[in-house]
Amino acid sequence: MKKKILILAALWLGQGAFAQKTFTIDASKKGAEIAPTMWGIFFEDINLGADGGIYAELVKNRSFEFFKPWMGWERKHKTFIEGQMQIKNRPDKPSNPRYLSIQLNNEKKGELGLVNEGFRGMGLKKGLTYDFSILYRVKKGNAQVHVELLNDKKEVVGQVSSRSLSGSEWQKLEMNLVSAETVLKGKMAIWFSGEGELDVDMISLFPTDTWKGRKGGMRADMVQMLADMKPGFIRFPGGCIVEGFDLDNRYQWKKTIGPLEERQLIMNRWNIEFAHRPTPDYFQTFGLGFFEYFQLAEDIGAEPLPILNCGMACQFNSGELVALEDLDPYVQDALDLIEFANGDANSTWGKERVKMGHPEPFNLKFIGVGNENWGPQYIERLEIFKKAIKEKYPEIQIVASSGTSTEGDRFELLDKELRKMNIDIIDEHAYKSPSWLYENTSRYDSYDRKGPQIFVGEWASHTKNKGGDINVNNWLAALSESAFMTGLERNADIVRLTSYAPLFAHEDGWQWTPDLIWVDNLNIYGTPSYYVQKQFSTNRGTHLLQFDQKISGQDSLYASTVWDEQTKEIIIKVTNAGSSAVQHEVNILGAKKIGEKAKLSRMFTDDLEAMNSVKEAEKVAPVASEVAVDTKRKKLILSLPARSFSVYRISVK
Ligand code: AHR
């Protein structure tokens, strides 16, 4: 008899194995609400994330304002004439100081011109139309501009010529041309013909297949990957670029809005950050500026979460400080940003937003003061910001830095001080090894529930700590992240926002690894970490539920469970980090009826080194299926392969 029952049970379990453990979930005992902001994204212009990345401009150094004005450009002339093309400076326009001046001596197309190499080449797509534009004035005579798209053999694959140009005031010429080929690393040639003197600036080429078809917009494939995550918020513009190498190099949002040609370019601090990954051609044009960030947030349904400089430059670099008595303009920038985002058309900064085409407010709710700043100097500056912001905008939630790590003297001091000043949200950063992530899945269990909320604002699994030269986005990293995230989710009553960092990397232009999403000029793929993040953000649920016992590392198992009020489903997320397949049983209480089939979405591979790539974009990605549920006994069997991360959705009637 005993034997028979065992056989039956084994058959029912599916693979001839027995449930090792039995867990219980009570669907009627809903816990804390999960913040809609819980799973978000962190955007920084690092690894060619913005310029050369999501900002779809194909021309590098379009206004000749890189430190070396000819960087990215090759001069072409049939007969070399000294000084025929000159970079000129206009002291009356510090926001757009340089332009190119060309003497024309009856040249014909192909005799005098420039070739732009793009950021790492230009991605061109067969049959796609490209928008070319240029600012020009004809100081003397007449001129014509001819544009060519070139493939990697330098053959012309698209071209257009202007009419004869005239007019001594600056004006814009716009033309479009179609590429006859798909080219990964193309270039653009621009030829000047005519007789006289021609000045040019802001030479630009954009694909027309941008996100929402916006002119001069963003790469649609990159935005789509973000939209697909249904992120709760987007943190921008970083990261260390907020702080800058020094204060001159800090991010100043006011210089990133308004007409493009007036957005003053600065060096990207990642240009010089890592000696082993120098990127001398990395600058910020701010074509993607604060207006566009807010618009992006709105497009993808994410709360905007801007982080501003707090009067301190990066403490790993110059560590420059603004004296407390000189902090006012920095504080004013924060107040003005809130007005820019939320103010009406009669307010000074609200008017600027309206002028840029967005009459409705952006509904800003959060503002970050400082990125990875630390020490008493940070606290005293933050106090000043806090007082000013809360006086004028008490409803705005302030996000404050707890430094660069989750422990150590700096963290201890900041954590204590931030709690003392009753800051709204503490931003913790955790770039850690896989083993740290596994060992810290209970980190937030002991956090004070009455204290500030937690934003795990930058974090990722760094495999380098296991050997090797660089951190790689392999399954080992992603699996450990999935385990850590079950811990974040179990603590969603106090952890209200989290974001992996950094977000994007260009295969030929990165400085930092690992990164969530990789691109080249034409292609994109999500890493296994991307799919793990997406599994959480698209299965967020609305309320916490609890297992009858905490599942946080026992037998290499990590799990969390939530309730989705909209769909009336229990969602179970479970990581089996062990090297053997296991089966466990879940009893569901507090439900009259449960659905016959649970939806299962699972990521797994035996190979911890497995990675995605342009060629194998979804080698490690979720696979969807359905599993039978014992509706009579209200039981679900979790049948978990070794090294797997599974998400189950069980409907409750
Ligand atoms: O995400 C990359 C960098 O890591 C961020 O710019 C910085 O905040 C952190 O040190």
Task: Label this structure with key terms.
8-stranded parallel beta sheet, alpha/beta, binds alpha-L-arabinofuranose, 653 residues, 11 helices
Give an overview in words.
By secondary structure, this protein is α/β, with parallel strands linked by helices. The protein has 11 helices and 31 strands. The strands form 6 sheets. Strands 3, 4, 5, 6, 7, 8, 9, 10 and 11 form a 9-stranded antiparallel β-sheet that branches. Helix 5 packs across helix 6 (348-355) and helix 10 (475-490) packs parallel to helix 11 (528-537). The protein is globular, with a radius of gyration of 28 Å. The protein starts with a helix and ends with a strand. The relative contact order is 0.13. Alpha-L-arabinofuranose is lined by residues 44, 46, 238-240, 371-372, 404, 458, 501-502, 512.
